[in-house]
């Protein structure tokens, strides 16, 4: 809990308050605090009526019989309803003026551009759904998507959803080993990929990673490949097919399946406290209702907006706020394939200027990078189209928040700092920009219908400004339904830490005004550049190398990334420490998980500090990694001399 208290102190002095500008509130979906508080009260008193009211905005083949069936810890929402999320994101708009509205405006890293109207996107989705059907994909089958940020990724997701196949998007930065684990865990039948993608001017070789993975994934029958970079690749006869060739063989007529409300929509893997990532399962109707509503209210989305969420679709933010939430609202979504500093550090601002972006949703780690690169880059561009800014992924420090407000938002754009998780599916704690007065660094208050609290380990609410565990006290529509293939872990991790209450894994405090201040993870999960990684995952990657006997991984606060990964490694007897071995081990982790898990620093040590029961004392390692010395209590340590050695190692 040491990080929790440190953060409480550092943020406790933040006293600035920014009410929404009157001109923004007047035109907003939610116009005042009074209106928001009324909604919160209504939703608190009658949550099922509140969500049912919101669900009516969507298209149902058959209306539900029962809003919520709650058999803790399993929820079913809109029981008995029939719905299709692809239909709600596409077909529903075709009978309106939005048919010819831009759904996706896409910009590739090299500068190529494509725009797809709702009509055109619908056509592509229907055709690809027919391709999937022709390849033998049926309702309930799992399909893995390992792709760059190109329109075909959104098309693939919507095509799966259209026929009731469950997609599992695997971030293109993950390695082939990570791909194998995820494909096998869900027994995916088909993989959609691309020859490669562009990142900072270099090609990311996706198909090569897939070729490597498919040697060890018996469930996969077919691989469909989008031509993106046109760099030659291997195509396995009988197994691999080009997207553009298959698309020629099908027609564009593919009615959306009438699916149960609880039909599995997607699995998305995220890190937990063990070495094995968790396949978070989301279902259809509840997920759609909450992503639809939060997109509309939190981003105050209007038909004339150009909306840009910069997240990769490989993460939940991309699922909920690049694809499903915005498209179900009929929005114009901007998608950018590449890095924020390619070819220059002003790429984002150039995009905002050229496409007249109105709403920008990005990550604190990106903002910190922009600050470092210097304000001359955004100042070169006309950012006057922006009217709302958002952040997600980790706590934002007040300095970065103020920079975002002044340099990007010119002091006039409200900022929505949105707290949520892969597991929650949609935004949970957030300002509503026309109503909420914001405080830099606070995600403010729970969304209507969400009952959040801060508790002690034994389930007691803490007082104002006391640190504790962030919990959610009643089910919400877009909540995860289980961990794929491991319902015991679902129960254990989320609903048994405090009995019957959802345990988020974050530390938080609530101030005297009821504002939530999220202080980050309290478990062995670390947040590197807004991405979640389990220390255990990185440790097992290290230990899988022949030279490593034991490894302990901790996070060290990092100005840019939020946290940097520091690994303490004990070598097998026959190996000796060297800089070269450090490089080999860092490359090994990259191969096992992906570049985002590469340790910033590796330290060799003869032994790791342990308690008498053999548990590694990470708290000490964290202290050593951060400050170089240990102040805390060490009476449970087995071998005190270990500390001296770790310190000595640091000095050389
Ligand atoms: C963890 C969830 C939700 C999409 C991106 C991350 C941290 C997320 C905030 C925020 C403080 C935040 C939490 C959370 N987090 N948003 N606004 N303020 N912390 O999804 O990979 O599932 O990670 O990200 O620690 O538990 P994820």
Say what the CATH topology of the largest domain is. Answer: Rossmann fold
Structural class: alpha/beta
- How many structurally independent domains? 2
Task: Bin the strand percentage.
Answer: 15-25%
Q: Which stretches are poorly predicted, pLDDT < 50 over at least 5 residues?
A: 1-10
Rg computed from alpha carbons, rounded to a whole number of angstroms: 24 Å
Shape annotation: globular
Report the oligomer. single chain
Instruction: Name the helicity range.
Output: 25-40%
Strand order of the largest sheet: 12-11-8-6-7-14-15-23
CATH architecture classification of the largest domain: 3-Layer(aba) Sandwich
- Total count of strands: 30
Mean pLDDT: 94
Number of helices: 21
Specify the CATH homologous superfamily of the largest domain. ANL, N-terminal domain
Query: CA-to-CA gap between the ends?
Result: 30 Å
Task: Report the sheet with the most strands, covering strand number, pairing sense and barrel closure.
Answer: 8 strands, mixed
Features:
8-stranded mixed sheet, 7-stranded mixed sheet, 652 residues, single chain, disordered N terminus, alpha/beta, 30 strands, globular, GMP Synthetase, Chain A, domain 3, Rossmann fold, binds 5'-O-[(S)-butoxy(hydroxy)phosphoryl]adenosine
